[in-house]
Design goal:
The chain has one domain. Helix content is 37%, strand content 27%. The chain has 8 helices and 8 strands. The strands form 2 sheets. Strands 5-6-2-7-1-8 form a 6-stranded antiparallel sheet, with helices on both faces. The chain has a two-stranded antiparallel ribbon with strand order 3-4. A hairpin with a 3-residue loop joins strand 5 (79-83) and strand 6 (87-92). Helix 6 crosses helix 7. The longest helix has 13 residues, at 11-23. The protein is globular, with a radius of gyration of 14 Å.
Length: 165
Amino acid sequence: MSTVIGVFNQMEAAEKAVKTLRNKGFKDNEISIIARDDGKTVKRDMEVGGDFGGTENIADGTAWGGALGGVAGLLAGVGALAIPGIGPIVAAGPLAGALSGAVTGGVAGGLIDLGIPEERGRQYEEELKSGGILAVVETSDEKTEEASEILRRNGAKDVESHGGE
């Protein structure tokens, strides 16, 4: 298995990347998105995320799906966490569960568990602190290049793959 990671500046671009990944056969249990919860009120995406409607404050815990826009409607396992040094984050996909167990190690600790070197994990954590949205794809070695290309085509920067043979 390999882990592909990239950073988006816009949630819409991350959403588009997730849709493209799914259309190309990547499964929900392969795709994770992590974003910082800045406490702003967000409009939930009715079209992709289902019948959510309205606006809510993410910090109150009731708008986790809205925090990640339509991505939450695409992926399972959405959660909100408070990470020391970063503050509140929201995550969708399998990494959401892994991060809840790695709160003391922060996001970098969760990424280390996926085979991302500690130094790079800390750099990705800094991107997250600065408002970046992390997209993480855990997939077979054969699909690593395809996942990387999809993330790049949809606007991700700092796209890298780790692990594998």
